[in-house]
Design a protein that fits this description.
The protein has 15 helices and eight strands. It is α/β, with parallel strands linked by helices.
Amino acid sequence: MKAVVLGAGAWGTALSHVLSRKVEEVVLYDLDKTYLSLNREHRNPRFYPDVLLSKRISFTDNLDKALDEAEIVVFAIPSKAYRFLARELNAKLKQKVHILSLAKGFDSETHERLSVVLRKEIQEEKRYPIVSLLGPSYAEEVIRDHLTCLSAISLDEEEAKRFQMLLSGENFRVYTNTDEVGSEIAAALKNVLAIASGILAGLGEGENARAALITRGNAEIMRFGMAHGAKMETFLGLSGIGDLMLTCNSMKSRNFSLGYEIGREDDASRILAENTKTVEGVFTSKYVTEIASKEGIELPIARAVFEVLFQGKHPSEQLSSLMQRELKSEEVR
């Protein structure tokens, strides 16, 4: 069996490590030739120079070569690149493949969920049902074999089970879920809350504040998700509260660490101008705020983050404004 992982970054490399336990050939594909040394040294020179990778893992910058006789294709690239690479894949594929999606976000042009993008751009005769792997997972812990639990989500339960069996092992446990809408919305929106949590920490607020933020933020995610057909129980699972708790409490999270720096300066302008990393929550805050406004969904925390990132509002002022909102019942309405 051969698997191709599109994207040789931190998460793509970590998932390749997991795949290599049961897959005979795992090919990392990326346009960045920096990773070519992986074929000699069996190490990712940029992200994990101290981790010796399986000899089953190789690297190529040639997509045709990567896809030749592949049975599995993993999307481990930023959400903004999904549509472009999916179209390229559709043009080059000569055989039907199983597809696994790892990114947590929305399409930058159409605001569609990523599984929807893949279904639209890759012809049905060239792929099996789309599966997304979501949940609380830092790549650097996965590649070092720390215990991790995730969920394989698909509209097709049998396809989700296929990846469940393929990926699960002693330190890596995979559950299945068929609520694609809820899982993808939760996975994307938690990045916005992670920015907010980082901002609170940067402003000097304590754990009381972050606990309240996570709780009320999860209520916003549930409100948005259920308005789009999600199941409530999904938000209590790994792709819901599990991922939310992880990313809202650690500097390992790009979204949290970006928020932390913004909070320390009480301003986002310089931090955003100098940021070179993909931080999915930035774009997501804009998307969900726009949609919520059109559909009349109340998302005060997400809106506050959007106004800090895109309208020059100061985090301290936004926090004060949130605390002075009209008092209300906590009961879900």
